[in-house]
Specification:
- By secondary structure, the chain is an alpha+beta fold.
- The protein has one domain.
- An 8-stranded antiparallel β-sheet has the order 1-2-3-4-8-7-6-5, covered by helices on one side.
- Helix 1 packs across helix 2 and helix 1 packs across helix 3.
- The chain is globular.
Length: 191
């Protein structure tokens, strides 16, 4: 009987870190996406957060140990060509093979987020955009489904000129060979 108890105790000890890591994985995916969205909003709506140095901007994102600026990103993570001007690129790590890229512009009031990796980001994306915190800042305007993607247009409650097009897989367990979450925020300078 002591032998069985020792084996069970060893198995619990060996599997406990794995369970903790699995539980933290989705939490980090969610926190990273929420941070990318906060950064997107701050860059566009609060230029003072980055105009005299990026420290306030990075503080808005949070997760400072997971955020780093880079000089380039793969094409799949870049915004549409019309928004590729005076861009700065940020990587937000969300686990070993997962993360988000945040692209902002010093010349255009826009931001662009693309996320991908080995884990399924669709459930996390749905959790984030249906959370009370997100909905307190954004109003849903419309939604469109095409093939295996769903795109939702949101309008900022703080400034109606700022919209966010949030695209993600329509169902869980979609393909993972391309960005799974694509968000483009744009501030319209024309009425």
């Amino acid at each position: 009987m002591r032998f069985v108890i020792l084996i069970l105790a060893s198995l619990i000890h060996l599997t406990a870190p794995v369970l903790a890591e699995d539980e933290e994985g989705p939490a980090l995916l969610r926190q990273a996406l929420e941070g990318a969205l906060r950064g997107c909003e701050a860059w566009v709506l609060e230029p003072a957060s980055w105009s005299d140095g990026v420290e306030p901007f990075l503080a808005v994102i949070g997760l400072t140990e997971h955020v780093r600026e880079t000089f380039s990103l793969p094409d799949a993570f870049l915004p549409p060509p019309s928004l590729r001007r005076a861009n700065r690129y940020w990587r937000i790590d969300a686990g070993q093979e997962n993360g988000y890229a945040l692209v902002v512009s010093e010349g255009i009031p826009m931001c662009h987020i693309a996320g991908g990796g080995g884990e399924d980001l669709q459930p996390v994306a749905e959790i984030v955009i249906t959370a009370a915190n997100f909905r307190s800042r954004w109003d849903k305007v419309s939604e469109e489904r095409t093939n295996d993607m769903v795109s939702t247009l949101f309008r900022s409650r703080d400034d109606k000129a700022f919209t966010l097009l949030f695209s993600r897989a329509a169902t869980p367990d979609a393909r993972r060979d391309r960005p799974q979450v694509v968000v483009t925020g744009f501030y319209s300078l024309t009425p």
